[in-house]
């Protein structure tokens, strides 16, 4: 999301954050109600285009939102009305913005309960557990399988051993992927957690565990590069012969021996 849409989302986040703070642990209710609006926007292109149309005054669009969200918390209706009154570069950006606030609501709920660290760790562990499970990952993204069935698969994987926010996020990622692969959505949530803490998250893959000195040095280098504190999530993979693969958001720096060998093969082949 860029330009006009980015500015509109930033403004919406600024308005919504105090609401989440006031809601405390009950912010998760706001998130679930916002997800219902995301579903409505995704299922109706005409609705989405109407609510994102800058030529239509804010008042009638706000009335439509209020009708769609009948029974929802006033704070949710107000947040949604603020979003449809804003300008968006593309109509899909409106739905993305609603989803963005919804996920933040779930994370704010966990934070209010003092469980955000746990949610972050559980989502990271789930991501790692799926690395070698290609068929499971494909099932969680297969649009031929009903969303409820994909969410039920997540329930079986988690087996009621996670925080409620973790379960809600993991289920939502499966039931409504919105064009994203399952693991990609979990990575997106990790970025949102980092955003709540004003820090980046770097996933570092190496053959052997990093020493404390190595982690500290790498964190310092990444902090200078990104201009903010960076949390390192470490993944150890015995198939990596040496070097590191570092992913921060969409950016990947791969210096592993296998990557260099693969690059060399490509150069020889060309």
TrEMBL record:
**Cellular component terms, GO, for this chain's entry?**
plasma membrane; proton-transporting ATP synthase complex
GO MF terms held by the record: proton-transporting ATP synthase activity, rotational mechanism
This protein's major location comes to membrane
Q: What is the protein's membrane topology class?
A: Peripheral membrane protein
The record's subcellular locations are: Cell membrane; Membrane
Q: Does the keyword tRNA processing apply?
A: no
Instruction: Name the family.
Output: Belongs to the ATPase delta chain family.
Protein's job: F(1)F(0) ATP synthase produces ATP from ADP in the presence of a proton or sodium gradient. F-type ATPases consist of two structural domains, F(1) containing the extramembraneous catalytic core and F(0) containing the membrane proton channel, linked together by a central stalk and a peripheral stalk. During catalysis, ATP synthesis in the catalytic domain of F(1) is coupled via a rotary mechanism of the central stalk subunits to proton translocation.
Source organism (scientific name)? Cellulomonas rhizosphaerae
**PANTHER family, sorted:** ATP SYNTHASE DELTA CHAIN
Alphabetical keyword list:
ATP synthesis, Cell membrane, CF(1), Hydrogen ion transport, Ion transport, Membrane, Transport
By its UniProt entry, which HAMAP family does this protein fall under? Answer: ATP_synth_delta_bact
Q: What is the protein named?
A: ATP synthase subunit delta
